[in-house]
Backbone:
């Protein structure tokens, strides 16, 4: 390419850059900086906000370096980034693998590598590397994610960094990679798999939360077990309605099952106390056998898959206690039980959430004003300028400020959705959906854990939480997509 052509291409890139998204990006970083100031400022020391030895001053450094990083990314041809996707992924996979051996133990985590006076967290940068690789693989080989083989290949690319990050004892950062399955759904993955994942969460929550509560005063019947088995039966019937052509089997499965459950409960309540879940077991076994019979008679694999769903659901439910007691670490068990209301731990796992709720609630409608938050000034909320930064927004800016922040994130995600859908090439579309899925996951989980709605897994709020690794990671993730979008009108040769 001649120098004149390169110059014209550069001008075209900046002209086609989606400046609206850049504006939202800058606004979120500015609001994030104000929140970091509110969370970290100490009136006793009277440190200037722009002192680079303070967190508020260092966050300015991260913000301006992120702007510079974004500008540099815009100067790189997106075809070069796409061409090196595999190499970037492999490089970060290797870095993730060696991180536990290079990192210092920080609160039990081995995920931070110290470079001079700074520390970086490779897991934050591995997100864009994984997004590039998975986008390249799916687009280059035209993978059909509705097929098991192609879905398994794609899933392996996502699972590898998850496993390597779990080895660093960073479960929260690893769970972020589940966001890629939202992109998989857009690219053809069966909706039944997402439904199965949501059902598994429901089984886990209901099964644990109500395990020790009796059903309708019947001491022999666990409310949690009864409800989960009923859910499995209902979900299996719904899948029959959606994925199979015959309606009579659906009516039989749902009708006879409901009748058996009602009669079992009434018998246990008024005639002879016994564990009504035994009847559910019998009905479940009959339903599975019936589904297998229909699969053979109608020569339709969907019936067999629904039977497999039912068996897998039962197996998952009865393994929940083992996972909770034997697989999860003690602090994770406590967090789950506190979240589900099974334990009160106001000085331990529940402390952060309790203090965060107090901070947000004390802000009222319009907040206490910039730097006037009492909860944050008195350091009641641990990690208040990183994982729990949103409570500072609630305390200083109130309900209005929280609403503005959430609306800004909503606008960003909807804008990314629009940009992803207008991509002329599958690589850009897939990468765009990966970006918006990661942002959506971070915002939903981070805000949810501050409000006590999701488990405390320790992930940052994009552009708000203090730190260079987080801000740079999100900036790279976003601006690679903006660079791809800026070249969307390029004619392929």
Residues:
């Amino acid at each position: 390419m001649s120098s004149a052509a390169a110059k014209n291409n550069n001008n075209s890139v900046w002209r086609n850059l989606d400046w609206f998204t850049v504006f939202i990006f800058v606004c979120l970083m500015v609001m994030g900086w104000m929140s970091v100031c509110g969370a970290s400022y100490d009136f006793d020391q009277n440190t200037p906000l722009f002192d680079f030895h303070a967190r508020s001053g260092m966050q300015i450094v991260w913000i301006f370096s992120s702007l510079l990083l974004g500008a540099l990314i815009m100067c790189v041809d997106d075809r070069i980034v796409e061409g090196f996707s595999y190499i970037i992924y492999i490089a970060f996979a290797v870095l993730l693998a060696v991180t536990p051996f290079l990192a210092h133990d920080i609160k039990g985590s081995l995920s931070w590598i110290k470079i001079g006076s700074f520390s970086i967290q490779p897991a934050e940068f591995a997100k864009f590397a994984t997004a590039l690789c998975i986008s390249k693989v799916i687009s280059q080989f035209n993978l059909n994610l509705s097929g098991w083989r192609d879905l398994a290949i794609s899933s392996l690319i996502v699972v590898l960094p998850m496993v390597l990050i779990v080895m660093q004892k960073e479960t929260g950062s690893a769970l972020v990679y589940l966001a890629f399955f939202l992109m998989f759904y857009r690219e053809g993955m069966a909706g039944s798999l997402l439904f199965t994942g949501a059902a598994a969460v429901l089984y886990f929550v209901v099964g644990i939360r109500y395990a020790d509560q009796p059903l309708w005063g019947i001491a022999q019947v666990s409310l949690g077990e009864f409800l989960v088995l009923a859910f499995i039966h209902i979900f299996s019937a719904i899948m029959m309605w959606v994925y199979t052509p015959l309606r009579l089997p659906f009516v039989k499965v749902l009708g006879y099952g409901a009748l058996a459950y009602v009669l079992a409960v009434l018998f246990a309540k008024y005639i002879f106390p016994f564990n009504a879940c035994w009847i559910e077991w019998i009905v479940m076994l009959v339903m599975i056998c019936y589904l297998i019979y229909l699969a053979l008679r109608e020569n339709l694999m969907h019936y067999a898959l629904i039977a497999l769903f039912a068996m897998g659901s039962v197996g998952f439910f009865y393994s929940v206690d083992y996972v909770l007691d034997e697989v999860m670490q003690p602090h994770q068990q406590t967090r789950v039980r506190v979240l589900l209301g099974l334990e009160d731990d106001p000085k331990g796992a529940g402390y952060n959430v309790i203090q965060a709720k107090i901070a947000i609630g004390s802000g009222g409608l319009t907040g206490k004003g910039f730097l006037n938050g009492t909860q944050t000034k008195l350091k009641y909320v641990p990690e208040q300028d990183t994982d729990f930064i949103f409570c500072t927004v609630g305390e200083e800016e109130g309900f209005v400020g929280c609403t503005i922040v959430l609306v800004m994130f909503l606008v960003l995600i909807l804008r990314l959705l629009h940009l992803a859908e207008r991509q002329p090439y599958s690589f850009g579309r897939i990468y765009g959906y990966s970006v918006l899925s990661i942002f959506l996951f971070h915002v939903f989980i981070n805000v949810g854990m501050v409000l006590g709605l999701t488990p405390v897994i320790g992930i940052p709020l994009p552009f708000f939480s203090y730190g260079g690794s987080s801000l740079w990671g999100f900036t790279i993730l976003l601006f690679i997509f903006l660079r791809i979008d800026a070249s969307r009108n390029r004619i392929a040769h």
Q: What stands out?
A: The mean pLDDT is 89. The chain has two domains: 3-189+344-486, 194-327. Residues 390-421 form the longest helix (32 residues).
